[in-house]
Amino acid sequence: MNSKQKKIVLIGAGAAVLLLLLGIGLVIASKRSGAASDSTALRQNTLTLVRNYVEREEFDRALSLLEGLLIQNPEDSDASALLDAVLEARRLKNAYADGSGSVSTEELQAALDAAREAIARVSAAADAAAAAASRAASVSSADAAERNKASGSKSVESDEERAGTKVSELQAKKTVQEDPGLKAADDKRRAEEAAQKEKEDREARDREAALQKEQAAAEEAKRKAAEEELSKKNAETRKRIEAVNSAVEKGKERASAGSLRSALSAFDEARNSLPEGEKAYASGKYTEMAESLLALAKNESDSTLKSEALSSALEYANLAVSSDPANPRARFTRGQIYVEQKKSAEALADLLEAARLEPGNYLYHYELGKQQYLRKQFKDARQSFAKTTQLKSDFEAAFFNLGLTNKALGLNSESIAAFRSAIKIKPDYSRAQIEIGRLLDKNGDFKGAETAYKEALVHEPGNVSALRELAALYSKEGRFADAERFFKEALVLGSSDPMTNYNMAVVQLGLQKPAQALDYARKAVEAEPQNGTYLYTYGLAGELNGMPDVAIQQYAKAIAADPKYVKPRINLGIMYLDAGRLDEALNQFNAAYLVEKDNFEVNNNLGKAWALKGSFDKSVEHYARALNKAPRDPTVRANLAVAYVSAGLTEKARDTYKELIALDPSRWEAYHELGKLYISLGDKAGAKAILQELIQKKPDYKNAAEVRALLSTL
Fold first, then answer.
1. How many C-beta neighbours within 10 Å does residue 11 have?
2. Counting Cβ atoms within 10 Å, is residue 102 exposed (0-12), middle (13-18) or buried (19+)?
3. More confident of the two residues 640 and 155
4. Of 115-124, 153-162, 485-494, which range is least confident?
5. How many CA atoms lie within 13 A of 583 on its CB side?
6. Which of 344, 494, 536, 595 stands 20 to 30 A from 622 (CA)?
7. What share of the chain is helix, strand, coil (3-state, %, to 5)?
8. What pLDDT score does 544 carry?
9. pLDDT given for residue 143 in this prediction
């Protein structure tokens, strides 16, 4: 076999491996989608993203995602099998690229056989998982929604992200259905967002699990010391303690395996064996049981079983608190159960008490701060998060949430400092960088904001929020080409987001592309039909596209959505004015005036409208207000001078024309009009001087003949 033939074989075989990998990813996604919980869905999307990376031969990125899945669940046979297959595919690619001939046809065939075996194993696992999930698949959509609601979030930061993701998903569905051409981009966006979300959630879970483990170890040591003290008592007590400990451990193992009934049976056995009079010991054991059942509930996808597990956990937590009201761990555990049950007030009360009983426990203050934040008790939340960071100086999530809380209180400098502390601990903390960018942008530090957004994108290139914020920043700076580039990238990853479509419409208007602006504005309005800003932009795009009917309709809708929104009233009034519909124009301008009496555009257009109406006193009033807002605007000053003349206020007109000439010496019409005013006032010398000055400075003035005729009379 010559080198050319060998290369063809290698290419074909490598492609076969890739196709097989793509196939298995699709099998996994299709077989499990119907019955998946939130976490399962994220896992499937991650596997789909792995498929995409493999398709592009980005094996390292695919391996990174698979390794993340295996860190989360070392028993994930699907991920393990795919990991092996991707490793082999990467090896083959590298060998092919090397061109050294180190890979024989036989070796290649063996690799393909191994890949097929992996596919068979993964397929079998997928089938088994689908069968096991059949019960969950029968749950109604209402129950499924309730499960998703009950699953909750682990931190303030994940609550915000998940809310935004859900809205985006709902909006995406409609857009993609209407425009199948967006499906490929939307699928890519969903996969990448899911994978990134899974990564962030996994990292958050891992961090909090480590914290919980650390705290539990210290408490376990205290518990064992107490039990050792108890065991020194009489033989009957020691016997009961051994029986209780054995039953509790058995129940915890069964709960960990997901067997609620077996766990409850063991816990009932432990409860019945508790020695009398040992309240502190009993409280500790009840707490362990409650913790175990709480963990089971968090991992349970079936809403009925989840509710039952939480109810049982609460029963044991209540026993723990009643046995020893001063047990902080019992209070904390019950508070966490209330969090899962969405009983915010009860959760807050228990977490407050836990932190009071054990003020040196940073985790108690952290969880307390989260509940206070969610209840908008920002001052209290700030204290709790600050206390957490004092007790645990390397806890980046606490610093991040402290930053959010400071932001909610308007303490921007303190907020930025907290976010930077989080980044110092975790340099790739993209969300913290984005928050810094938003605050710097708000403070007018556009360069600093740009740097922060770009830093977020370095660590997370597909972060839609960072792309969107950076593009919006460029738009505000008038850098429309840069804004367009980043908005387009954001749209590829989240094509249905209405804010992005709106911003893209604004950018297209800035680039003088009204047709494209119209399309983006339409998409924004379709997603949020009651958003006055989107409707106004849609109307403006329609107007610039020569579609007056569309413009009038959308401006009217924008006004209906927000009667105090001045911009659509101004534009609609101008359209009516241009069409000769004077009364309708005045209605819009006057309505806008009632909202913003000092608005330049409102007063300038009212001055024009009242002049056309013949009400020159009112015209003067509004032109004067407009001039007060823009004293260096020559056009407004000229309009005011004309209004003075029409109102018979000749001397004021004269003074205004003199001011206009001083402001803009090339305003030749002002010289001409001022000369005529001088004549009307009987000031021939003044008229002669100003008209001669006009002819000297502008001999080719368009009305030079008229000026010379006037001079001949002076």
1. 11
2. exposed
3. 640
4. 153-162
5. 0
6. 536
7. 80, 0, 20
8. 94
9. 36
Tokens of 420: 């930077």
H or E segment to which residue 333 belongs: helix 328-340
- Confidence band (pLDDT; 50, 70, 90) for 57? low
Read off the DSSP letter of residue 275.
P
**Residue 546 burial class via C-beta count within 10 angstroms: exposed 0-12, middle 13-18, buried 19 and up:** exposed
CA terminus-to-terminus distance, the chain = 109
Q: pLDDT exceeding 90 applies to what percent of the chain?
A: 60
CB 258 within 8 A of CB 299: yes
Q: What is the DSSP letter of 81?
A: H
CATH code of the domain made up of 233-358:
1.25.40.10
Using an 8 Å Cβ cutoff, are 252 and 313 in contact?
no
Residue 649 has pLDDT above 80, yes or no: yes
With helix as H, strand as E and coil as C, how does 231-251 read?
HCCCHHHHHHHHHHHHHHHHH
Q: Are 314 and 341 in contact (CB under 8 A)?
A: yes
Number of other residues whose CB lies within 10 A of the CB of residue 101: 11
User: Which range among 58-62, 533-537, 670-674 shows the weakest confidence by mean pLDDT?
Assistant: 58-62
For residues 121 and 564, give the distance between their C-alpha atoms in angstroms, rounded to a whole number.
64
Instruction: Over range 185-204, report the average pLDDT.
Output: 64
CB of 315 closer than 8 Å to CB of 301: no
**Residues 6 or more apart in contact with residue 208 via CB below 8 angstroms:** 154, 155, 397
> Exposed, middle or buried by CB within 10 Å (0-12, 13-18, 19+), for 652?
middle
Domain edges within the chain? 3-132+187-197, 233-358
CA–CA gap between residue 682 and residue 235 (Å, rounded)? 126
Query: 3-class SS at 441?
Result: helix
The first and second tokens of residue 139, run together, are 């749950």
Q: What is the 3-state secondary structure (H, E, C) of 632-688?
A: CCHHHHHHHHHHHHHCCCHHHHHHHHHHHHHHCCCCHHHHHHHHHHHHHCCCHHHHH
Q: DSSP assignment, residue 369?
A: H
Distance CA 350, CA 549 (A): 60
Indicate the pLDDT class of residue 210, thresholds 50, 70 and 90: confident
b (16+ CB within 10 A) / e for 422-445: bbebbeebbbbbbbbbbbbbeeee
Q: Over the stretch 423-458, which tens digit does the pLDDT of each residue have?
A: 999 999 999 999 999 999 999 999 999 999 999 999
CA angle 707, 709, 711 (to 5 degrees): 70
* DSSP string of 252-268, one letter each residue: HHHHHTT-HHHHHHHHH
Distance (Å, whole) CA 547 – CA 551 = 6
How high does pLDDT run on average in the chain? 79
SS3 33: coil
Count Cβ atoms below 10 Å from residue 261 Cβ, excluding itself: 10
Mean pLDDT within 76-95: 65
Neighbour-count burial for 322-352, b at 16+ CB within 10 Å, e otherwise: ebbeebbbbbbbbbbbbbbbeeeebbbbbbb
Total Cβ atoms within 10 A of residue 41? 17
Phi, psi of 690 (to 5 degrees): -75, -35
Please report the pLDDT score of residue 50 as a whole number: 62
- Per-residue pLDDT at 410 exceeds 70: yes
Contact 443, 435 (CB under 8 A): no
- Helix 446-459 crosses helix 430-442 at what angle (to 10 degrees)? 170
- The torsion angles phi and psi of 683, rounded to 5 degrees, stand at -100, 80
| Per-residue model confidence (pLDDT) at position 77 | 60
Do 449 and 438 form a contact (C-beta atoms < 8 A)? yes
